[in-house]
Design a protein that fits this description.
2 copies of one chain form a homodimer.
Chain A: H1 5-12, H2 15-23, H3 28-31, H4 42-55, H5 57-66, H6 81-84, H7 90-111, H8 115-118, E1 121-124, E2 128-131, H9 132-155
Antiparallel strand pairs in A: 1-2
Chain lengths: 175, 175
């Protein structure tokens, strides 16, 4: 069981600065293109992460910890950022993500979770029973998955530009 | 033709700080595991990028620009970091990468390349004729590909830890 709060936090606390280093100051040329209908641009990815900080990870963790009569999670709205990010700049979203993540990690640390609490269960709308430890691990993987997705959507801008090198660059043909 | 020096540099100049934000201060627990035999850990990825700054991108660009009798690139040694990184810490590699990349970008800017120069050709050992513009675009995609690879190899530490969520996290089963 490697997904302790401390081990997971080492990644979770780095994501806001990583996204700022990668995307801060870039113009729409790099951050607006997506990979086709219903896919995320770099900008959309950041908005999606902001939504997760507000609506998903911590509300689900609180629901599990409370162990009340209703332990069923609200479904995740994968496209909430389409309206929530409207009118915002990338710089604003990066700031929001930073502040929300910092607050969430402070609350998480404050809980000083025991192994017993990490084993508490909630009910995922599709999967059924899941534990708080699995939720925490998923939060980390979700961060890293979106970092990889941002790298991929930006790389694809140069899919044709690389010429024959495309054969050596699998990121350019990954869905 | 979007891969101009300026457009490409916006990504190339961000990679060192992005890697530092993502990896700086992490211990071996996160940075040493790889994805199996002959695959890269996060640490290996940074060493590989350091090698590329020294031995690949700029030497190839200079070879193309010189337009001498021999325009054939040296093959890229994908495993050079196995000996070159020996005895070095991740912090040292991040510093090296930062300094080498900054120097390379200064040299690249100093050339003030024209469209004519970007169309000059060299000879890739496997692909044959490639242009300087394609080399520049490949440099960018290579950076983003390794960023995605670092995110993936770290995410895979939690492949079992996420439980049923694995079905929603394609990064965990990507080769």
């Amino acid at each position: 069981m490697i997904a302790t709060v401390e081990h997971a936090t080492r990644i979770l606390e780095r994501t806001p600065a990583t996204l700022r280093a990668l995307l801060g100051g870039l113009t729409d040329e790099w951050t607006a293109p997506n990979e086709g209908p219903d896919t995320f641009s770099a900008f959309d990815n950041v908005g999606h992460l902001v939504h997760g900080e507000r609506a998903d990870w911590m509300p689900r963790a609180r629901l599990i910890l409370a162990q009340g009569a209703n332990r069923r999670f609200e479904p995740y709205d994968r496209f909430a950022q389409n309206h929530e990010s409207a009118g915002k700049s990338l710089a604003q979203l990066l700031d929001e993500f930073d502040a929300l993540r910092a607050g969430n990690l402070r609350e998480l640390q404050g809980w000083a979770l025991t192994n017993g609490q990490l084993a508490l269960e909630g009910e995922h709308p599709a999967f059924g029973t899941v534990t708080l430890r699995q939720l925490l691990a998923t939060w980390v993987v979700h961060d890293l998955g979106h970092l990889a997705q941002i790298a991929r959507v930006m790389a694809k801008q140069y899919r044709e530009e690389v010429g024959p090198w495309r054969a050596y660059l699998p990121i350019l043909d990954r869905p």
